[in-house]
Amino acid sequence: MENPLGKTVIDCDLLVIGGGMAGCFAAIRGADLGVKTVLVEKANPLRSGAAATGIDHIWAYFPEIQGPAGCTMDGLVADHTEKMDGMIHQDLLRLIAEQALDRILDLEKMGVKIRYEQSQLPGKYILVRQVQNVVNTLNFDGRDMKLNMGREVRRRGAKVVSRVMVNELVVRDGRVVGAIGVGVRDKKIYLFRSKATILSTARISGGRMFYESGPGAGVAFNLRWPPSETGDGKAMAFRAGAELINLEFSHHRVNFKNFVRGGGLPYNSYSPAGQGINAFGKVIMPPEKGIFEDSYQGIYQAPKHRLIDELMQGRGPIYCDLTTGTEEEIRFSEWSISHEGGGTALLHVMKREGIDFRKDMLEMGPGEIELGNFAAGGLYVDGHCASTIPGLFAAGDEMGGVPLACAPGALVTGWHAAERGVDYLKKNKAEARVTARDPEVQAFEAVCQTFLNRKDGLRWQEAQVALNRLMNYYGLKLKTEKMLQRGLENLDDLTKHAELKAANPHELMRCLEMRNLLLNAELLLRGNLERKETRKIKSMNIHLRMDYPQQDDANWKCSLAQRLENGRIVFAKKPFRTI
Amino acid sequence: MPPKIDKTKCNKCGICVDHCPEDVFVQAEKKVPTVKYPDECWHCGACFIDCKPGAVHLELPLTMRLIPEPYRDKIPEPIKEY
After folding, report:
1. Measured between CA atoms, how close is A358 to chain B, in angstroms?
2. Which residues in chain A have Cβ-Cβ distances shorter than 8 Å to B46?
3. For A219, nearest residue in chain B (alpha carbons)
4. What is the pTM of this model?
5. Is residue A112 part of a domain?
6. CATH code where residue A316 lies
7. Fewer CB under 10 Å: which end of chain A, C or N?
8. Domain containing A303: what range?
9. How far is Cα A142 from Cα A139, in angstroms, rounded to an integer?
10. What's the rounded Cα separation, in Å, for the pair A145 and A154?
């Protein structure tokens, strides 16, 4: 090969791919258990992943608070399951609920502030309602927790490899024994040889798949979820033969119009003052004040989100309004927002522009499409984070089938996947011989060289816009058998003609991301075509088929799994596990 | 387009380059970093949060403007000649 790229081989026991919350906790636990652990991250674990610049909320079960209020652990799991209409693997949900508080206490040991003098609750926690109908979500100083976590990974003795994008898994005798990536700054090929591997590259950022700004908007990464979340883990797992589930699901959410970052609206970070109002000043989502009262420890019935309906019924624009809040309430919200990813940036820009929640409302609008949260697409794993390929585990949003696992899901399953990975590698002593001259490494280098050597190729942005337009049209609101078939044909054409070029390793990363997005788009469309029903979680559509408008629980109250076998996609139905 | 670096305040430490999750900065040795890929900014704020001398700020592109309600300016009404 002309101008071969340099190669680096890194050996370890436990390889963790993706250094967000789940990946950091996996690496910390792996190192704790005494195995040689490597954490590889496309960016830098100090500021990467969905929590790059913080989260202000994390749910858990606080026995000394929820217990006296009449909510048991079983009750919490039942409540979450019911809110997801049973479309959830309860064993994993239970694991998360049981261990979330322990992991939060680990965060505290790393230096993250979680207790507050003004709190009247046991433990001095500030709790609000977020995911379940229980006031069990800790509001805390999470802005810089990735700095704490990233430093802790190193302090415990795990090796951190930053700015390397892993793109392929190495499989020998049906087991995952390593991974291959490329330096997004140094352009070197990296071969990792591992005894157990954890994937934690997150959900697919809905905005990289669907983006509703239309042509001419450019590709400014004004996305709620990290633009770097391009389904790299899902794509490499699929190519390696692992089973993926729920990729056909997606849903809408509400954000600030234009600037989409800064937490849930008009509640969560914006409570207790935050309320939703319509163009006529009518309160359409009343503020959640009650849950902030010291005496309040009960079960809370969340109001239904009907913001989009408000627009459809001609009562828009709609606003997030904090102006009726007291000074104390607004200060509380500003504290909360400043710790929620992008919230600091929101407040920074508001200050520069002289916008103030005390007098100004900000407009809300339809936000980006979610491929996580209620959708929960990802690797099919058992109750202990093991994928369908021995030696491969998944954690956090890389796992499918646990909707709204959120931050505690990442921390708990990262930790747990490491424990199970270490168990696995201690039991499996078989040595795999993998070298930098092996065909997989050569094949991946050839993929990289194709992008790097293509002088008259296309910019990756062109493929990005084409993919977004294609997916918006065929894969979202107008789905029928014929439309989805046509969508697949369009995607095939796009994939064949997306001959992208990379002038440097940074652009190579974007080209490889596009390659992964195109594969994930195919799985998304194929899943949409196969699931012949309309599926809702409560009143929210997660899959709307115009030609199958009814929900079909008899045939489809299950996950649709997709795996690659001899070059063909194999579908299987996977029931949701109950406990 | 975001982010912007104030050259007079920048101490050239490179922390923005090191922390940026989208890899939008480049830095030549001992030089003020430059924003090579402004379109790829996620507006997460890591650069300005972690900048010790406070040399970085974010500016939002036109597609991301925060427009307060009530609106600040007066838009003149047309005159109807019918």
Report:
1. 11
2. 47, 52-53
3. B39
4. 0.96
5. yes
6. 3.90.700
7. N
8. 255-366
9. 8
10. 15
